[in-house]
């Protein structure tokens, strides 16, 4: 079951990266900035441009990293094996949802907007 979830998460991230013209094989780096909203429960904690690194091709423990976010207050490293990733093609967003956190006492989600929104 865990392998199936990881494969689905990888597919969702790949769709998001492809939509943004980013090669999933070379997506890790400091040049990928996205509009990002972070929610804990129903409350939005922040919405800002964030540098995000993706690593879905390698065997890394961490698949998505937020470089600009305060890691003391917020989750900044995400794994395909632990969180749920879902790509919404119509809104051009990738949403990361987590239920277990050492930073929060409730569910959290992060909504990442595409670089190039079709207007």
Instruction: Specify Rg, calculated over alpha carbons.
Output: 13 Å
**Biggest sheet: strand arrangement:** 4-3-2-1-7-6-5
- Could you list the spans in which at least 5 consecutive residues all have pLDDT below 50? none
Distance between the termini: 38 Å
Helix/strand order: HEEEEEEE
Q: What is the makeup of the main sheet?
A: 7 strands, antiparallel
Describe the structure.
The chain has 119 residues and is α+β, with helices and mostly antiparallel strands. The protein has 1 helix and 7 strands. It has a 7-stranded antiparallel sheet. The radius of gyration is 13 Å and the shape is globular. The mean pLDDT is 88.
Report a brief summary of the structure.
By secondary structure, the protein is α+β, with helices and mostly antiparallel strands. It has one helix spanning 2-19, and strands at residues 33-40, 43-54, 64-66, 77-78, 84-88, 93-98, 108-113.
């Amino acid at each position: 079951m865990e392998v199936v979830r990881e494969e689905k998460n990888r597919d969702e991230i790949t769709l998001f990266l492809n939509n943004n013209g980013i090669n999933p094989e070379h997506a890790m780096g400091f040049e990928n900035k996205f509009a990002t909203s972070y929610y804990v429960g129903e409350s939005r904690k922040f919405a800002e441009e964030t540098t995000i690194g993706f690593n879905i091709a390698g065997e890394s423990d961490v698949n998505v990293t937020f470089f600009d976010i305060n890691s003391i207050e917020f989750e900044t490293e995400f794994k395909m094996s632990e969180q749920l990733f879902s790509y919404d093609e119509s809104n051009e967003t990738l949403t990361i949802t987590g239920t277990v956190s050492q930073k929060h006492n409730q569910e959290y989600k992060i909504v990442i907007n595409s670089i190039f929104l079709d207007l």
